[in-house]
Amino acid sequence: MGAILVTAQLALSFLPNIELVSLFIIVYTLVLRGKAFYPVYIFVLAEGLIFGFGIWWISYLYIWAALAAAVLLMRKNESAIFWAIVSGIFGLLFGALCSIPYLFIGGAGAAAAYWVNGIPFDLLHCGANALAAALLFRPSYKIMKRLYANEKP
Amino acid sequence: MEKKTGKRIMIAAAVFAALIAVFAAVYFLAVNPPASGAKEITVEIVHSDKTQKTIEIKTDAEFLRKALEEKNLIKGTESSYGLYVITVDGETADDTKQQWWCFTQGGQPLSTGVDSTPIKNGDKFEITFKTGW
Q: What is the DSSP letter of A36?
């Protein structure tokens, strides 16, 4: 599953901020609950090994886990529209969450500038995430549930 | 159950719409006023023919990309990890010939891209044309 996340990320990496990783993490977490953190951190480690352990990687240590944790809190929902909205909100907050390390490196001004400059990309991320989840949540959730029908979360 | 789900979706949609409005407002309000140039950084460019050019930049930018773009010094392609710089000071690196631009600060390679390299007053950066990975 970690490999699927990496493949999904690499396959769409030529499109800025358009990805399927958020959707897959939502689906993994709904089906596997706490066990979803394993593929999440395999993905994070693989991203660091592929692209280098830069400042952005520090934010990856908590961003994807935060999404999985949020999904755990709201796991009773199975509506595609609901998860499309959650995925959209996550895309929108992505830049703000990524800016946290800059608070410690360059201060509040650097963090704010990083976030504000990235807002157009966050809006794109938001729209793409919402659309991807609206279209693909149901089929991917169905497949995951079938594959892991006997899995105890 | 249906009613509960509907209510949750309505709340999530309201939060979603409010966040989009706030983010868009912040961006449009923050679209930067002209730089008054509180910081001064030095950029040394070494071209493929080894000619050197030193440029002093006065800027209010927080990150290197904006400071360089204010002087129209760099161009490139956008990626998930920020701008991949292809052209510097009018010279374009051809990656099919393994040409690239190496960014260093005080001789040390940068561990971040131009989008996420913070700048402070007095910083000195070097941008050197390189051939071979």
A: G
